[in-house]
Amino acid sequence: MRYLPLTQEDRTEMLARIGATSVDAFFADIPAAKLNPGLPDLPAHKSELAVERALGRLAGQNVPAGSVPFFVGAGAYRHHVPATVDHLIQRSEFLTSYTPYQPEIAQGTLQYLFEFQTQVAQLTGMDVANASMYDGSTAAAEAVLMAHRVTKRRKAVVAGNVHPHYRETIATVSRYADDTVTALTPAPEGGEDILSAIDAETSCVVVQSPDVFGHIVDLKPIAEKAHAAGALLIAVFTEVVSLGLIEPAGAQGADIVVGEGQSIGNPLTFGGPYVGLFATRTKFIRQMPGRLAGETVDADGKRGFVLTLSTREQHIRREKATSNICTNSGLCALAFTIHLTLLGETGLTRLARLNHANACKLADALAKVPGVQVLNKSFFNEFTIRVPGKAADVIEKLADKDILGGVPYARLAAKAGLDDLILVAATEINTDEDRAAYVAALKEVLA
Amino acid sequence: MNREGRGATTPITTGTPAPTTFTGNHALELEEGLLFEIGRTEVTGVDIEDAGDFTSRLGGHERKLSLDLPGLAEPEAMRHYVRLSRQNYGIDSGLFPLGSCTMKHNPRLNEKMARLPGFADVHPLQPASTVQGALGVIKELSRWLLSLTGMQAVAFTPKAGAHGELCGMMAIKAAHIANGQKRDIVLVPESAHGTNPATAALIGYQVKSIPARADGTVDVESVKAALSPQVAALMLTNPNTCGLFERDVVEIADAVHAAGAYFYADGANFNAILGKVKVGELGVDAMHINLHKTFSTPHGGGGPGAGPVVLSAALAPFAPVPAVVTDGESLRLVEEEGEAGADQALGRMSAFHGQMGMFVRALSWMLSHGADGMQQASEDAVLSANYIRACLKDVMSVPYGERPAMHEALFDDAWLEGTGLSTLDIAKALIDEGYHPMTVYFPLVVHGAMLIEPTESESKASLDLFIGALRDLAFAAKAGEKERFLGAPHYAPRRRLDETRAARAPVLRWTRPPLAEAAE
């Protein structure tokens, strides 16, 4: 077996040195009746070539996004990632290292986490960011728990236009933690009334911008109302590239900003692994979940980095920790920080402009298709269209014509009664030909 | 003209100490500044076509301020990260004996498979007809996990071990609620990972600690005494964090079930028993499996992981959405609570459908090993740990030495008594010897613990060199060679770092130095 270096001779010598006759001696504490004689329903080991064939067959049963005109978003976006990013994250010193608990031999990881934290803080307009969460949705749920700790209240208001998966993730953990969630009704045409849901018991208001339908939300009045009521504003984004053009939530009064970082540096990979971004104000750092890299010096006075404030964390505080999170998204955070470093502010702004321009062109083209209505007044790179009939059927028929045309909103929230809406995303990957093909196919489907 | 070119070098010993360098570099050991010190906001390493003229639809929410994000051109970026990478130690650098973390070889075949466009370039919300192979991976991975554990169902979406614990414990809470039970206590042994009590507390449970008995295993009588109608579950790691198999596990499980509680197993140490015993036959109701430990997906400097949870028949109905179900010839997802196939689902753990990238890597490892290879892997991992223990027990002290070790060799610091040295000093001296230290000061039940997990990936020569290094350090410690330890590491990119200072006045990000200084 190619991954196992010990030879039969080695095993015999090692057993002799231990003074055991067989490895069975080491498994003696397992009740004998429970030991497996073998695993008859599983196959024997395979060569590298055979594994490639088996997994290649499964991969071949999927339609890769890059093989068709592609307009699917709703929380995960297809962007071009420079070749340098994937090369660098496969450097084995990054790929095969552990959480940097031994800082003297993990300065590479610690420095890029420190740089990542700084980039996330700058992007969101916040003071500090942590070293990543699992993804945007779990970051949002952790933000709600943090707001409960900060305000010592236990009722969250979640806007109706937050991504339904994020809403469910927050609702699930809240249900089991015996916390209350006021979940507002979706407003597909925008202009949602969030303010009237805020009261003296509210710990936090969770608002997404651009929201799941694509509308860009003015966070300032929500921040003011929340603060007046003693609550925190948690701002959520699912498309981090939008921060290249849109005013960051930090500048609009948000107390915690969370979001999905997949768009920068990370492939779609059917939904994971992704990277959750989490930023807040300095005054709240001791209530933050997750790991933090911080600057210090070594015994010779040289600058270096360590994991810090770990008295918040589970391995020290156990049941009193701010979160149970341990492993997070290190390598995805690395991909994010490398891609963002390559972009810089100049590249990110250009990338965001190109995304927005492509979305504007697509929205204008789709609006001309008979029966199609674009719901948005404002959007970044994703908007919502209303179609006659069931959106899910339209998407299936488009797929039959090799167009992946978006996400039926009902796929995310079947019970919302919004069966005629499609979320449509456009990024820098879309060409004029892609848009023309989409418009032509949609005309045929709706004819 | 010099037609002979450069002559061959002949080393000369000067006897003078090595000079201080202008750059601070030492040949291959290169210092690297922060991105923010070397980058500039007007530089970019990505060429992006111009968007052309169009009317913005941002609704008046345009960003007005600079983000102050520096960029690097591609060659600069390459050098920045390559230099940083060289300050890291990885599994590919050498033996990585980090107990409870299972730092085994990460095959590159797995990386290649995960990057096939059919896996890496597929969106989670594409129509089911276009992702049959991705759903097939989930189905196949589940089949292997169920076969290996003898359980009923897999909740595949949890994103790491602790997230799996949360999923399993929420399933337990959901089951109690469905049974009309209100229970508020979770029993956790003292030797447990910190994530166990943190998880239980997160969903409102009171944590009650169970002591270990003298041989390092959980005291079955203490468990029985602690059980009551208020107890919701027992969380137990098996093999435990002392590297021992809980031999009374069946009796413990029976007692837990008799009290109407559920048995949660922490699967962090699954590598020791992979293919040897099915946890379902031991009475386990829920167990997370760290694909980034047992199934070789890379740790990546702290993630991403994947923590699918296997569930017993009693808990299977409460698995979170989404679920993958067979519909005639094809597969589809059940994505909403309450739908047929998820009518008692506990809810949703996260957006989308879990860590597909990790599923592909883990499945690649499973297929490569097969049933025979997996059993051999766990036997080799256990043999190697016992070999290390046998070769070091005369110079270091072994708690619970009367029981066979599983995949980890545990030492305490009794052997350091009178040397003036601590476990931390041994760990840092091991860095100078070219190793990542073992897990230290965990489990908490052992004083100055040193937990060594070699995994199955080491050759005998590699194990022997590591054992030799530790024996040499043990002799040096006892011979009073304190400077070798107290100043360690001497040869790492950094000496010991000031963690106290980092925590007292946290600097968690770079900030631009005040302009006044620059103007002077």
From TrEMBL, chain A:
Q: Does the keyword Heme apply?
A: no
- This one is known as Probable glycine dehydrogenase (decarboxylating) subunit 1
| Catalyses which reaction(s) | N(6)-[(R)-lipoyl]-L-lysyl-[glycine-cleavage complex H protein] + glycine + H(+) = N(6)-[(R)-S(8)-aminomethyldihydrolipoyl]-L-lysyl-[glycine-cleavage complex H protein] + CO2
The enzyme's first-digit EC class, named in words, is: oxidoreductase
Listed Gene3D superfamilies: Aspartate Aminotransferase, domain 1, Type I PLP-dependent aspartate aminotransferase-like (Major domain)
Q: Which family does it belong to?
A: Belongs to the GcvP family. N-terminal subunit subfamily.
List UniProt keywords, sorted A-Z. Answer: Oxidoreductase
Spell out the molecular function terms from Gene Ontology.
Answer: glycine dehydrogenase (decarboxylating) activity
What GO terms in the biological process aspect are recorded for it?
A: glycine decarboxylation via glycine cleavage system; nucleoside metabolic process
Tell me the Pfam families matching this sequence.
GDC-P (PF02347)
State the InterPro entries in the record: GcvPA, GDC-P_N, GDC_P, PyrdxlP-dep_Trfase, PyrdxlP-dep_Trfase_major, PyrdxlP-dep_Trfase_small
Q: How does it assemble?
A: The glycine cleavage system is composed of four proteins: P, T, L and H. In this organism, the P 'protein' is a heterodimer of two subunits.
The superkingdom listed in its UniProt entry is: Bacteria
Q: Does the keyword Cell inner membrane apply?
A: no
The EC number of this protein is 1.4.4.2
* Job description of the protein: The glycine cleavage system catalyzes the degradation of glycine. The P protein binds the alpha-amino group of glycine through its pyridoxal phosphate cofactor; CO(2) is released and the remaining methylamine moiety is then transferred to the lipoamide cofactor of the H protein.
Q: Which SUPFAM superfamilies match?
A: PLP-dependent transferases
Occurrences of domain Glycine cleavage system P-protein N-terminal (ranges): 1-434
Automatic annotation (TrEMBL), chain B:
Reactions listed under catalytic activity: N(6)-[(R)-lipoyl]-L-lysyl-[glycine-cleavage complex H protein] + glycine + H(+) = N(6)-[(R)-S(8)-aminomethyldihydrolipoyl]-L-lysyl-[glycine-cleavage complex H protein] + CO2
Q: Which residues form a coiled coil?
A: none
Q: Say which enzyme class the record assigns.
A: oxidoreductase
What are its E.C. numbers? 1.4.4.2
Q: Where is the composition biased (Low complexity)?
A: 7-21
Q: Which GO terms describe its cellular component?
A: cytosol; glycine cleavage complex
Task: Set out the biological process GO terms recorded for this chain's protein.
Answer: glycine decarboxylation via glycine cleavage system
What segment(s) does the record annotate as region Disordered? 1-21
Alphabetized GO MF terms: glycine binding; glycine dehydrogenase (decarboxylating) activity; pyridoxal phosphate binding
Recorded hits in Pfam families, A to Z, give: Aminotran_5 (PF00266), GcvP2_C (PF21478)
Q: Which domain of life, per UniProt?
A: Bacteria
Q: Where is the Aminotransferase class V domain?
A: 177-300
In terms of InterPro entries, this protein maps to: Aminotrans_V_dom, GDC-P_C, GDC_P, PyrdxlP-dep_Trfase, PyrdxlP-dep_Trfase_major, PyrdxlP-dep_Trfase_small
Q: Which residues form the Glycine dehydrogenase C-terminal domain?
A: 377-473
The UniProt keyword set, sorted, is: Oxidoreductase, Pyridoxal phosphate
- State its role: The glycine cleavage system catalyzes the degradation of glycine. The P protein binds the alpha-amino group of glycine through its pyridoxal phosphate cofactor; CO(2) is released and the remaining methylamine moiety is then transferred to the lipoamide cofactor of the H protein.
Q: Which PANTHER family match?
A: GLYCINE DEHYDROGENASE (DECARBOXYLATING), MITOCHONDRIAL, GLYCINE DEHYDROGENASE, DECARBOXYLATING
Provide the protein name: glycine dehydrogenase (aminomethyl-transferring)
Task: Say which species the protein is native to.
Answer: Azorhizobium oxalatiphilum
